[in-house]
Amino acid sequence: MKKTFYQFSFVLIIITSIIICSSNSFAQEVRKPTKISSEETSAFNLKYGMGLSTRYIWRGLDLAKSPALQPYGQVLLYNFELSVYGVYGLFENAVKHPDFVRPEDPSKFSAIYLDKIAFNEVITSLFYHIRADFGTIRFGISEYYFSDGLVKKSTDNVDSLGNVISTSVSYPNSTWLNWDDNGTGAHTIEASLRFDGKKNFPLWFLIGINVYNDPDNSIYIESGYTFLVQRNKLTIQLGSAIGASSWYQFNFKNGTFRGDFSTNFGLTFSREIYLDDWLVIDFALRDVVSFYEERNTILFQTTLKIE
Length: 307
Known about the structure:
The chain has 307 residues and is mainly beta. Helices cover 9% and strands 52% of the residues. The strands form 5 sheets. It has a 12-stranded antiparallel beta barrel with strand order 1-4-5-8-9-12-13-14-15-18-19-20.
């Protein structure tokens, strides 16, 4: 079964590459209205909007497990970028208390692990852009905040002699003021570096590493290439978490420890429609294959952009 799955995925990648290469010669740039020159040269810009997606897939992980609203805002000042991005699941389908190392003894398993929530997340980022003839380099930090009780707390119960007789597990409220480290806080900080090539070679590459509140210091890499086909964008991308990581839900699978790679492959078809110089609607269809979870997910997303 697994061998057949990988063979199918490999054939799909090859066929897709052939189609892309044959279609690339007919590609043309997506048209958009001519903006006022003073707006394009302005050192200060505001962008914001709202997205709606049938699923929320982040780096190959189906986090919300339901349709999700995705509001965002972005401030651009010279080469600095400050952005906020929210994800709000519409249904209570996400696991509230993920425990990726379930006890072998069923008597130690608590029904609390079966609780469901509507997934919520806020991502705040600060980046600096370096623009050159060959492309743009972006580096900075992103802070991930989960507003629900996803932080696991273990408390030892001791007798009068100080001996541990049992351990209680609880999930306290993940308040915004909880900035604890070592996987016990509500905030995780990631440092990242991204390169975006010019239009004549739109290759991009991303590497991110968690530097705070992640005992695994999880590392993620991703690369992709965007083609222009009949006013549409076709993006092919490949990403992977490296090494064991609870953050990427990649420590154990079927009771077996995993510490190599958690890889995902994706195709994105998208198109922007300019209703005015400042108002844009973006449509996107994504096909994401998670090789680790052996699952394929297709989602559709539409985003209203005010620029």
